[in-house]
Specification:
21% strand, Cytochrome Bc1 Complex, Chain A, domain 1, alpha/beta, 240 residues, 8 helices, six-stranded mixed β-sheet
């Protein structure tokens, strides 16, 4: 067995042992409206942990890889919120007009960008020779968006990219899955389309300032990659 395979096997064993040590929790069932804008409408039941409180966390997973996989995720708003469409367009625009250049062309990563989904705005890179530098590129991307240094053409191109996914063909077996799994109705989807059409320059700048600026929302950072002495010495990071 090679050293890499042995290290990976050891890591998987530690994960399994930690799972056995976890104490069982009693779930709490809560009822939430499908549409947060209309609380009196239809609702669904969700399982919630009473003692769960989201908190900022930075975690480094040392793995026998020659490259890094970097992610930063920010809690934002649900699908039915009026700002969800702005964040979707913002993610596509930041990827195409800023992050791709910084992370792949300058940083040498195989890929990277931003995406919005499930109420979470996420930055990511994969097969990345950098770690902390990529996190800095994420911050620069937010500053770029807040400054408003993008054109109407940039916005229109991002909208087209978003619509290509929103209105993509749905297989017969997948129809209705959005309602069943996530409580997203056809009416909510249509409202989302109309909000996408209405997104303007001002909406994107305000969304970046309101949700993506440091200290505005709870966020989590994770890096999977080779040994990194800088992260190990930084007390703000949890090393696994």
């Amino acid at each position: 067995m090679t050293d890499t395979a042995a290290q990976l096997e050891s890591f998987l064993k530690e994960v399994a042992e930690n799972k056995k040590e976890r104490r069982p929790t009693r779930p709490n069932i809560v009822e939430r409206p499908l549409d947060t804008v209309n609380p009196a409408g239809p609702s669904r039941k969700l399982i919630s942990e009473l003692n769960f409180h989201p908190c900022p966390m930075k975690t480094f997973f040392q793995l026998p890889f020659p490259v890094n996989f970097v992610s930063e995720t920010i809690r934002t708003v649900p699908f039915s919120h009026e700002d969800y469409a702005s964040l979707c367009v913002l993610a596509r625009m930041m990827t195409a007009k800023f992050l791709h250049s910084e992370i792949r062309e300058k940083g040498g990563a195989y890929g990277g960008g931003a995406r919005m989904g499930g109420g979470l705005f996420s930055f990511y890179s994969y097969r990345d020779p950098n770690s902390v530098e990529t996190l800095s590129a994420f911050r620069k991307g937010v500053d770029w968006a807040k400054s408003g240094r993008f054109t109407q053409q940039d916005i229109d191109e991002a909208k087209l990219s978003v619509f290509s996914a929103v209105d993509s063909p749905v297989a017969p077996a997948d129809k209705g899955m959005g309602r069943f799994l996530n409580g997203v109705t056809d009416e909510m989807k249509q409202n989302h389309r109309e909000r996408l059409f209405a997104v303007a320059h001002r909406n994107l700048v305000e969304a970046a300032e309101r949700y993506l600026a440091v200290g505005q929302r709870t966020r989590g950072v994770a890096i999977l990659g080779p040994e990194n002495e800088a992260l190990k010495k930084d007390p703000s990071w949890i090393v696994k």
